[in-house]
């Protein structure tokens, strides 16, 4: 799969003259990139940050996508006015979008198109510009910046400073590459440490001119410039030995006052380059992905002998549980060399003693619960179905803790050799929500991801809660998850779609989750690639 990927492409997005959907202020736009997965279904690739009160946003967050020469990669860009904290865009105002192929963008390098509400239906106003660059450098710049004695810009307070970094393009124009957070009411701010890919920051050229704007944030979007300075990465890197300072100059003030010195000092506390590894770097570098399946045999699924049951096998021998196992397993098994997958049922009475079990091996062999390949899981599921009695309650935490114990052992290894993916297929009812929350928070510190596929028509609010997309999941005691490791997908959305569509949606977050774990642990691939790609 990796061999077919020609290169990685970085997309820079800007918009002009957007629709104004907010009463009394401007829109707060964000751009989302979607890729077609066939059958008129789309999956999100990445999204930019939200820019407050701005009709002409230039987004600092770049969008990244693998470019495959041999495929027609249909893309859809959507611009939304964001007025809440939810990541779900369905309740935000759609300002317009457009569809094209990645090939069209790559061949033109830069395209500008009018925004449309639907295909062929103009949004009324607004354009979007997409610029493509190939990324070949796997280094990133890591920086810590503070400022001293900035000018006071607010009448009833100090200033609310933020920084914007720009790189100079070949045509002399400046392109935004990073925007810091705003620090309220502070003339001596210290911004959070940030990491930007070296390609994004300076196109890999350490001597490329970099311009830095320091501005006072205003909620209506009319930010006041405090000052500017120019530098390059070579000079910034000197801060790794000792801090480097730059005078923050306001051009108009400098013209007017002979005695003018600066409008404050920007101090680079630290600046270094470090390797930034991708999912493919880890997998091609020797990381094994271990796949475990947990199947829900709670009584709420219905008697498997009844056609109304979610476990009922249709005349052609399938059901939603089997479809989910097949579609996800066929993708994951390519990354596991021995193709031996532990498979468990939970919340059933097993035939040996008819006690309720929350992690019962499908092959009835507790000492070796492994199935040979995805076909082995399917065979074990079909064999076990007539022999068990569905029961309750629905407890998720035992099987999550089971995989976490194995992942904890792998976490003791000094390199990025193993990662664990637990696929839970369930009808959605959950009894031990608090224990499950704690198990997920504990698991977020380990090399593991949890995929939950919901089958049937149940209310999946609990599953959506466990998926950290609407904010960081916390345990009952308030401990936040170290990273988001849960991905929930309702099967019914893909019931009539190709099975590849379910697999793509279900596995969409696993690569970033794997990278986020090893990055959190500062672990390079077992066999890292050379410094540049």
Automatic annotation (TrEMBL):
Domain C2: 1-115, 122-246
Location(s) in or outside the cell: Cell junction, Focal adhesion; Cell membrane; Cytoplasm; Nucleus
CDD domains documented for this protein: C2A_Copine, C2B_Copine, vWA_copine_like
One Gene Ontology term, aspect cellular component: focal adhesion
Organism superkingdom: Eukaryota
Chief location category: other
GO biological process: cellular response to calcium ion; positive regulation of tumor necrosis factor-mediated signaling pathway; regulation of canonical NF-kappaB signal transduction
PROSITE patterns named in the record: C2
A Pfam family matched in the record: Copine
SMART domains for this protein: C2, VWA
Annotated GO MF terms: calcium-dependent phospholipid binding; metal ion binding
InterPro entries xref list: C2_dom, C2B_Copine, Copine, Copine_C, VWF_A
Keywords: Calcium, Cell junction, Cell membrane, Cytoplasm, Membrane, Metal-binding, Nucleus, Phosphoprotein, Repeat
SUBUNIT field: Monomer. Interacts with ERBB2 (preferentially with the tyrosine phosphorylated form); this interaction occurs at the cell membrane and is increased in a growth factor heregulin-dependent manner. Interacts with SHC1; this interaction may mediate the binding of CPNE3 with ERBB2. Interacts with RACK1.
Similarity field: Belongs to the copine family.
Function: Calcium-dependent phospholipid-binding protein that plays a role in ERBB2-mediated tumor cell migration in response to growth factor heregulin stimulation.
Full protein name: Copine-3
Organism this protein belongs to: Cyprinus carpio
Gene: LOC109057051
């Amino acid at each position: 799969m990796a061999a077919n990927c020609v290169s990685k492409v970085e997309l820079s997005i800007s918009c002009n003259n957007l629709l104004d959907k907010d009463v009394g202020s401007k829109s707060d736009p964000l751009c989302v990139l979607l890729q077609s997965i066939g059958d008129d279904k789309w999956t999100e690739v990445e999204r930019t940050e939200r820019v407050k009160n701005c009709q002409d946003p230039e987004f600092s967050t770049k969008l990244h996508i693998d470019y495959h020469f041999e495929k027609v990669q249909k893309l859809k860009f959507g611009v939304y006015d964001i007025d809440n904290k939810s990541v779900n865009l369905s309740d935000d105002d759609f300002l317009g979008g457009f569809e094209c192929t990645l090939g069209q963008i790559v061949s033109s390098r830069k395209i500008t198109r009018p925004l449309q509400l639907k295909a062929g239906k103009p949004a009324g106003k607004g354009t979007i510009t997409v610029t493509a660059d190939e990324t070949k450098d796997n280094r990133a710049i890591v920086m810590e910046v503070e400022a001293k004695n900035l000018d006071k810009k607010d009448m009833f307070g100090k200033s609310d400073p933020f920084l914007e970094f720009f790189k100079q393009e070949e045509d002399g124009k400046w392109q935004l590459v990073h925007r810091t957070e705003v620090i309220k009411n502070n003339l001596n701010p210290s911004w959070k440490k940030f990491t930007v890919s070296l390609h994004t920051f300076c196109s890999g050229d350490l001597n490329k001119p970099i311009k830095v704007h320091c501005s006072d944030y205003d909620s209506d979007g009319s930010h006041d410039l405090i000052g500017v300075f120019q530098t390059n990465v070579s000079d910034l890197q000197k801060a790794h030995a000792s801090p480097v300072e730059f005078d923050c100059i306001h051009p108009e003030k400098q013209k007017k006052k002979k005695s003018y010195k600066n409008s404050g000092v920007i101090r680079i506390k630290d600046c270094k380059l470090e390797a930034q590894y991708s999912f493919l770097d880890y997998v091609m570098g020797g990381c094994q992905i271990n796949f475990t399946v947990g199947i829900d045999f709670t009584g709420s699924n219905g008697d498997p002998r009844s056609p109304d049951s979610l476990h009922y096998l249709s005349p052609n021998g399938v059901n939603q549980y089997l479809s989910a196992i097949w579609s996800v397993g066929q993708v994951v098994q390519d990354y596991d060399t021995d193709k031996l997958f532990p498979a468990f049922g939970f919340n059933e009475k097993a035939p040996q003693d008819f006690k309720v079990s929350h992690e019962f091996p499908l092959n009835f062999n507790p000492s070796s619960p492994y199935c040979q390949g995805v076909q082995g899981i399917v065979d074990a599921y079909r064999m076990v179905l007539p022999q068990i009695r569905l029961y309750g309650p629905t407890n998720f935490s035992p099987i999550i803790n089971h995989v976490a114990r194995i992942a904890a052992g792998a976490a003791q290894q000094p390199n990025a050799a193993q990662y664990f993916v637990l696929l839970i297929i369930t009808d959605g009812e959950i009894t031990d929500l608090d224990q499950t929350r704690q198990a997920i928070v504990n698991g977020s510190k380990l090399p593991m991801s949890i995929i939950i596929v919901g089958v049937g028509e149940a209310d999946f609010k609990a599953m959506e809660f466990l998926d950290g997309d609407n904010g960081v999941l916390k345990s009952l005691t308030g401990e936040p998850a170290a990273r988001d490791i849960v991905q929930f997908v309702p099967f019914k959305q893909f019931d009539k779609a190709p099975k590849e569509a379910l697999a793509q949606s279900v596995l969409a977050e696993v690569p970033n989750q794997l990278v986020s774990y090893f990055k959190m642990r500062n672990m390079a691939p077992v066999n890292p690639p050379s410094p540049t790609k």
